[in-house]
C-alpha cells in the first residue's frame, strides 16, 4: 500500500512570528514555574538563582527530562544550556554514557504511562550531536551521532523545527541535520539530560505560525445541539449514542451538515468512521463553502473511504473537481476511526490523516465561508470529537 503523499521531502516551515511559549526561568511567583520542581527517581529538578533551570541526574542511572504536555505538530523550539560538573564518559549498567543535553519534542504518554518522544541531543565535550526516537525502553537513532563543528564545548543554542514530521536541527544558528519522521508527529516539549549528568538551562522558547483561539469542541452528546437532526432529501441526520451520524445510504444525493458561522483562517479536526454502506464511498468534511454565480455553493472537500483511500476536491459552479485524485493511504484502516484535520493559515492549506500530512496547497485566498460534515450518497458515517479553532 502506498504512503499517502509525495510532499514529505519538502523542508520544514520557517519560524513564524508568533511566540507560543517562553520560560526564562526567573519566575516572579511560584505560580510562574511551569516546569517540575522536586526529586524523582534519583534526579533533581529546580529553578536556580540567576535564571537557570537545573536538571541534575548525576546520581541516576537513567536520563532526566522535564516536559510540558501540549499537542504541537508545527513549531520551532529554541533552548540555550550548558553542562556542569563531571562531564567525563561513564559506564552505567555496563553501557558507556557520554554527558549530553537536549530538547525533547513530540512527547506523548500512552494509557500505561509509557513515554514516546524525540530528542535532539548534544555531546558538547566531543562536539557531536544526534536525533533519537525513544519509545519506552527502546531507542533508535534517526541520525547521528555525528561530529559538528557548530557544537561548542561550553554553552550552546539548540533549535528544532518541525512540521508534521519534517524535522531540522540547528546548533548555534547552523543547520546540522534534517530527517522525516513518520510515527511521532506531534506532542509536548521540554528539556533532557543523559544519566549521571547535570545541566543548567538558560531559557526555552517555542514559536508557532499563530496562536489559535478555540471556538468549538463538540463530543456530539447533543448538549448543546449544534447540528441539524431530522430527515432531509432522504438523508437522516441524528445524534446516536454519543456520536453524530449522517445516513445517506438510501439517498440519491450526498448529506451535508453545516456548522453555524463563517470561518476564514482556521483549524478543523474531527474523527470519522463508516457505519454502513459500500467501502469505496467518501465521507469527511467541507469548508470555504461560499455562494457561486449560479445561486449554488462552491466548497473544498476532504474525504476518505473505508477501503483506505482519500481525496481532496474543490467544487466550481456546483461541479466537484479533484485537486488530489483518490489515492491509497496507509494511515487509514478499515473499520477504524480516522482523525481528519484541516489547517488553513496564511494562504497555506494542509490536510492531515491521523496526524500525518497527506496533501497541501499554497496561495489559497482567505475567504470566509461555512464549513461542516459531508457524507456521499450510499453510505452512513459517524462523527466524533470535533474541534474548531480560529486564527
Structure description:
- There is one protein chain.
- The chain is built from no helices and 32 strands.
- The chain has 391 residues and is an all-beta fold.
- It is elongated and about 75 Å long.
- The model is unreliable at 5-15 (pLDDT under 50).
Which regions contain 5 or more consecutive residues with pLDDT less than 50? Answer: 5-15
Percentage of residues in strands = over 45%
Kindly report the average pLDDT value. 91
How many angstroms does the end-to-end distance come to? 36 Å
- List how many beta strands DSSP finds: 32
Care to give the gist of this entry?
This protein has 391 residues and is mainly β. It has strands at residues 18-23, 38-40, 43-48, 52-56, 64-72, 74-84, 90-92, 95-97, 101-109, 115-123, 128-135, 138-147, 156-163, 166-171, 174-180, 187-193, 198-208, 213-218, 230-232, 235-240, 243-247, 255-263, 266-277, 283-291, 297-304, 309-316, 319-328, 338-345, 348-353, 356-361, 369-375, 379-390. Strands 1, 2, 3, 4, 6, 13, 14, 15 and 17 form a nine-stranded antiparallel sheet that branches.
Question: Topology, please?
Answer:
Layout: E1 18-23, E2 38-40, E3 43-48, E4 52-56, E5 64-72, E6 74-84, E7 90-92, E8 95-97, E9 101-109, E10 115-123, E11 128-135, E12 138-147, E13 156-163, E14 166-171, E15 174-180, E16 187-193, E17 198-208, E18 213-218, E19 230-232, E20 235-240, E21 243-247, E22 255-263, E23 266-277, E24 283-291, E25 297-304, E26 309-316, E27 319-328, E28 338-345, E29 348-353, E30 356-361, E31 369-375, E32 379-390
Amino acid at each position: 500500500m502506498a504512503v499517502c503523499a509525495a510532499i514529505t521531502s519538502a523542508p520544514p516551515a520557517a519560524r513564524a512570528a508568533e511566540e507560543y511559549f517562553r520560560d526564562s526561568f526567573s519566575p516572579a511567583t511560584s505560580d510562574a514555574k511551569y516546569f517540575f520542581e522536586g526529586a524523582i527517581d534519583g534526579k533533581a529538578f529546580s529553578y536556580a538563582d540567576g535564571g537557570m533551570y537545573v536538571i541534575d541526574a548525576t546520581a541516576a542511572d537513567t536520563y532526566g527530562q522535564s516536559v510540558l504536555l501540549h499537542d504541537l505538530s508545527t513549531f520551532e523550539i529554541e533552548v540555550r544550556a550548558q553542562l556542569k560538573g563531571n562531564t567525563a564518559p561513564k559506564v552505567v549498567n555496563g553501557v558507556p554514557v557520554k554527558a549530553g543535553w537536549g530538547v525533547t519534542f513530540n512527547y506523548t504518554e500512552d494509557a500505561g504511562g509509557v513515554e514516546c518522544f524525540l530528542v535532539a541531543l548534544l555531546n558538547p565535550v566531543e562536539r557531536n550531536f544526534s536525533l533519537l526516537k525513544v519509545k519506552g525502553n527502546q531507542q533508535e537513532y534517526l541520525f547521528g551521532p555525528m561530529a559538528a563543528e557548530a557544537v561548542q564545548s561550553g554553552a550552546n543554542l539548540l533549535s528544532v523545527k518541525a512540521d508534521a514530521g519534517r524535522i531540522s536541527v540547528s546548533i548555534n544558528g547552523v543547520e546540522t541535520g534534517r530527517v522525516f519522521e513518520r510515527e511521532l508527529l506531534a506532542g509536548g516539549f521540554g528539556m533532557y539530560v543523559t544519566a549521571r549528568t547535570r545541566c543548567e538551562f538558560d531559557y526555552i522558547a517555542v514559536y508557532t505560525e499563530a496562536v489559535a483561539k478555540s471556538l468549538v469542541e463538540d463530543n456530539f452528546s447533543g448538549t448543546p445541539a449544534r447540528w441539524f437532526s431530522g430527515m432531509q432529501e432522504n438523508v437522516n441526520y441524528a445524534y446516536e449514542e454519543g456520536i453524530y451520524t449522517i445516513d445517506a445510504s438510501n439517498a440519491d444525493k450526498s448529506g451535508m451538515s453545516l456548522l453555524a458561522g463563517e470561518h476564514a483562517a482556521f483549524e478543523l479536526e474531527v474523527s470519522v468512521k463508516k457505519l454502513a454502506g459500500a467501502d469505496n464511498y467518501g465521507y469527511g468534511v467541507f469548508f470555504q463553502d461560499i455562494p457561486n454565480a449560479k445561486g449554488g455553493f462552491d466548497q473544498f472537500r476532504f474525504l476518505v473511504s473505508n477501503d483506505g483511500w482519500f481525496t481532496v476536491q474543490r467544487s466550481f459552479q456546483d461541479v466537484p473537481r479533484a485537486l488530489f485524485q483518490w489515492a491509497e493511504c496507509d494511515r487509514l484502516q478499515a473499520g477504524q476511526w480516522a482523525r481528519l484535520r484541516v489547517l488553513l493559515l496564511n494562504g497555506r492549506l494542509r490536510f492531515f490523516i491521523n496526524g500525518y500530512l497527506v496533501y497541501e496547497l499554497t496561495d489559497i485566498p482567505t475567504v470566509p465561508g461555512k464549513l461542516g460534515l459531508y457524507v456521499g450518497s450510499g453510505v452512513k458515517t459517524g462523527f466524533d470529537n470535533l474541534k474548531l479553532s480560529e486564527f
